[in-house]
Design brief:
It holds the Pfam family GHL6. GO terms for molecular function: hydrolase activity. Keywords: Hydrolase, Signal. InterPro entries: Class_I_gatase-like, GH, GHL6. It is a single chain. The chain is α/β, with parallel strands linked by helices and 717 residues long. The chain folds into 3 domains: 333 residues, Glycosidases (TIM Barrel), CATH 3.20.20.80; 228 residues, Rossmann fold (3-Layer(aba) Sandwich); 93 residues, Golgi alpha-mannosidase II (Immunoglobulin-like), CATH 2.60.40.1180. The strands form 8 sheets. The chain has a 9-stranded mixed beta sheet, with helices on both faces. Strands 2-3-4-8-9-10-11-14 form an 8-stranded parallel β-barrel, surrounded by 6 helices. A 7-stranded antiparallel beta sheet has the order 1-34-33-37-29-28-15, with helices on one face. Helix 12 links the parallel strand 18 and strand 19. It starts with a helix and ends with a strand. The N terminus is likely disordered.
């Protein structure tokens, strides 16, 4: 009894002192004196590689009755420094004098835009004016049918009193410019945003109405191509492929035309929209849809990396769409996926961007608002650390077919490989932030449509010493999508001709003992067969190329007694080809490995990807870690040499469609090579300082806890 008494007494004393048995001492709490940090400026602009915190409010007509002071205060409380709000197009939220511009009937004698711009500017908040020329009110549509989109059924598209317009009609080509001129000359806006640009063929309910058949489209397509406008979307039809090119060139022409017009009216205005052409901020969305598909966890990362890796003179504007789906715009999507999407923006050094229907004040579902204020507040408090950044990435992912591309993003993220995303059309351009030769390795994930120029650029990259991992049907079409029936990249170590093996059940790749010596004995110790549920190219090896794995096509899978195959059924068609080309090396996987991983997340596909990149191509990693695959990592450095940091996003908490709070992940070892000798390591989310070791240019530390996210800041000696 006496010993029990002393144990209880000792325990009480320990607990009173804050000590818990089995718990390591808490890291030292540290403060970062950001006043001494000089991040410099990227290009002197307020919007490019700067700490932008944007909130977009898609104002309803009834919001003209709001308390504008409360609206502005909600933006201050949320730490927004840029606000996007409706100015004109579908509804004019100001007293327009134009004949074909529908004035907000709830505004009465007021000036909503003028009031908000004045009050937001007084708080130091910039304003981007939102315009939508994709639709026009029915009362004007009746008077101007030549402005309207015409579906393949010969009818106009009406939705809630609005009618679809056509990019080749007079409204978008001419009258919209009058609306812009009126608003820009009337208000001191900081930017312009255009909604639903280009060729809109579906309405809000998702109903598809087909290729526009208006007289303007027919005439312009005939004049430019000598062809008759197609009525069916079919990539096997050369006329439709030409129409696809026509759509892009005419849409880009309109974007450039609008951009030039806006800049002439006010050179300080920035242009923001869902296009790469003629804009400063490239808009994209992280949003939920009314489908059975799970949410795309890496949506934020995907969208901002694509812009940051492709353009040095443009910035991403990837917005988290708050509502759960367009047919359910009055309720919000999961707050936990919303957090992850915003963190994907923030920890890749991109602007924060958030959208609501209505205002922050009048939301019926407010669950995410405290998270919004928390993340935006963190960003504001540490905004010097989000200024003038560039990624520390040694691998470039060239954007290819969507499923292959997503699978590659998952693989790279789960394996903690630092990467950029590159838009193919920007390779070699003046706006590209990096040359290809700056990357240790490139991944070309199933990009069939390639120009002769792009093929030459990639072959040259390899010839000069680069490493290329190519998958799927890369280089088999021309840039318009016309099938060329041959593999055109010379560096891959295969003959141009190939035989297509269509996707089929019960098809595999056999991994032999000799294959494992190259791919990795430990990795493939317990793997002799890999699922291959993809179209496959039977290739002929050329030169000194080496081949690995063999195709085992459509073997029996039922009944169980008959589910086997013999050696006679194993073909010689290789599943992976390695080749030396000039000073460089390639690995060609003639099937869609990334799509397979996106489809099933299978361990064998992951093992093959890692082996190809690290064992065969010998691509070095810039970060070494034991981090969970559920922690996404980013590595950013300040261009002015003031600091660098590693971002960590916790993706746990998801089970199927359920998106719950992330589970804290403890004791993550991180080893990296900083640009300069390190003085301090600090965790900005927890506010603690880390002990570390430094040897041969590498720094190693242990991050004790990652709750929702962490940001490991490295300050130099």
């Amino acid at each position: 009894m006496k010993s029990s008494y002393y144990f209880v007494l000792l325990t009480t004393l320990f607990l009173a002192s804050g000590t818990v048995f089995g718990q390591t001492p808490s890291p030292k709490v540290a403060t970062v004196n950001l006043s001494k940090i000089d991040p410099g400026s990227y290009d002197g602009s307020w919007w490019n590689r700067t700490p932008v915190r944007l909130i977009q409010t898609n104002l309803r007509e009834t919001d003209a009755l709001m308390n504008t002071d409360a609206y502005v205060q909600s933006m201050v409380d949320a730490s927004a420094n840029v606000v996007m709000l409706n100015v004109g197009g579908i509804v004019a939220n100001y007293p327009t004098k134009l004949d074909y511009h529908f004035r907000n009937q709830f505004m009465k004698d007021g000036d909503l835009v003028g009031d908000l711009v004045k009050k937001l500017h007084a708080k130091g908040i910039k304003v981007i004016g939102r315009f939508d020329f994709s639709k026009i009110n029915e009362i004007y549509a009746e008077k101007k049918p030549e402005w309207l989109y015409v579906g393949t059924n010969g009818k106009h598209v009406h939705f809630n009193g609005q009618v679809h317009t056509c990019p080749n009609g007079g409204y978008q080509q001419e009258y919209g410019f009058e609306i812009l001129k009126e608003a820009i000359t009337k208000y001191p806006l900081d930017g312009i945003f255009f909604n639903m640009i280009g060729y809109t063929t579906s309405d809000y309910s998702g109903t598809y109405h087909g290729i526009c058949q208006c007289d303007n489209c027919k005439k312009r397509f005939q004049t430019e191509t000598g062809m008759t406008l197609p009525v069916k979307a079919d990539m096997n039809d050369p006329v439709f492929r030409r129409y696809n090119t026509f759509k892009k060139t005419t849409a880009d022409e309109l974007f450039y035309k609008i951009g030039d017009y806006v800049k002439k009216l006010n050179p300080n205005l920035i242009v923001n929209t869902y296009a790469d052409a003629g804009v400063d901020m490239i808009r994209d969305e992280s949003s939920s849809w009314l489908t059975d598909d799970y949410e795309w966890n890496y949506s934020g990362t995907d969208h901002v990396k694509r812009v940051l890796g492709s353009y040095k003179d443009k910035t991403p504007s990837n917005v988290f769409i708050y509502f759960i789906a367009i047919p359910f715009r009055h309720t919000a999507t999961s707050p936990n996926i919303g957090r992850v999407w915003l963190l994907g923006n923030m920890l890749n050094g991109a602007p924060l961007d958030f959208n609501v229907i209505g205002t922050l004040v009048n939301q019926d579902d407010r669950v995410f608002i405290p998270i919004l204020n928390d993340l935006y507040g963190f960003h504001k408090k540490n905004e010097k650390l989000f200024t003038n950044l560039k990624p520390v990435s040694h691998v470039g992912l060239i954007k290819g077919a969507e499923k292959e591309y997503r699978g590659m993003i998952k693989l790279l993220s789960e394996e903690h490989i630092m990467y950029d995303i590159i838009e193919p059309l920007t390779i070699g351009s003046k706006s590209a932030p990096r040359s290809l030769q700056e990357y240790d390795a490139l991944i070309l994930g199933d990009l069939p449509n390639m120009s002769d120029l792009l093929i030459a650029q990639l072959d040259e990259y390899v010839q000069k010493g680069g490493k290329l991992l190519a998958t799927g049907f890369s280089s088999t079409n021309d840039e318009t999508g016309k099938p060329m029936q041959k593999i055109r990249l010379k560096s891959l170590g295969v003959a141009p001709e190939y035989e297509l093996f269509p996707r089929a059940n019960s098809t595999y790749l056999q991994v032999s003992a000799s294959d494992k010596k190259t791919l990795g004995t430990d990795t493939f110790k317990d793997l002799d067969l890999v699922m291959m549920y993809s179209d496959f190219m039977k290739c002929k090896i050329s030169g000194q190329a080496q081949h690995y794995m063999k195709l085992v096509p459509t073997v029996r899978f039922g009944p169980p007694e008959k589910s086997y195959f013999t050696d006679a059924e194993i073909t010689d068609a290789p599943g992976l080809i390695s080749n030396t080309y000039g000073k460089g090396q390639t690995v060609f996987i003639p099937w869609r490995l990334g799509s397979q991983y996106e489809f099933k997340g299978n361990h064998a596909h992951r093992a093959l990807f890692v082996s190809a990149l690290q064992n065969v191509l010998q691509t070095p990693g810039s970060i070494k870690t034991n981090a969970s695959p559920l922690i996404e990592m980013t590595h950013m450095t300040n261009r002015n040499g003031a600091f660098e940091w590693i971002g960590m996003i916790n993706h746990s908490g998801q089970v199927g469609a359920s998106l719950r709070e992330p589970i804290p992940i403890q004791n993550t070892t991180v080893r990296f090579k900083p640009a300069k000798p390190v003085k301090q390591l600090k965790l900005m989310r927890s506010g603690s300082e880390l002990k570390f070791t430094q040897s041969n240019g590498w720094v190693e530390c242990v991050v004790p806890n990652v709750a929702d996210f962490e940001m490991l800041v490295c300050l130099y000696q």
